[in-house]
Amino acid sequence: MILTYRACKTLIDRKTYESKEDMQTKLDIFLLNNRLTQAEYDELTQQLSAA
Fold first, then answer.
1. Which of 15, 25, 32, 48 has a 20 to 30 Å separation from 38 between CA atoms?
2. Distances from the Cα of 14 to the Cαs of 7, 9, 19, 26, 39, in angstroms?
3. What is d(CA 39, CA 45) in angstroms, rounded to the nearest whole number?
4. Model pLDDT for residues 5-47, shown as the tens digit of each residue
């Protein structure tokens, strides 16, 4: 799970995602498949919305 979190955090930090909607969908899927914890998901979602 940590690898998924770090990869998503890097993508958001560097703004190398296709669109915010696409990145949010990926975060949703990772959460649903237990690849992110709820706390990690919340943090990344806030970071994405602030970007």
1. 15
2. 11, 9, 13, 16, 21
3. 10
4. 999 999 999 999 999 999 999 999 999 999 999 999 999 999 9
Question: Tokens at residue 2, please?
Answer: 């940590």
Distance of alpha carbon 46 from alpha carbon 5, whole angstroms? 14
The burial of 8, by beta-carbon neighbours within 10 Å (0-12 exposed, 13-18 middle, 19 or more buried), is given as buried
Q: In angstroms, rounded to a whole number, what is the distance separating the alpha carbons of residues 44 and 5?
A: 8
The two structure tokens encoding residue 39: 């706390």
Do residues 11 and 51 lie in contact, with contact meaning Cβ atoms separated by under 8 Å?
no
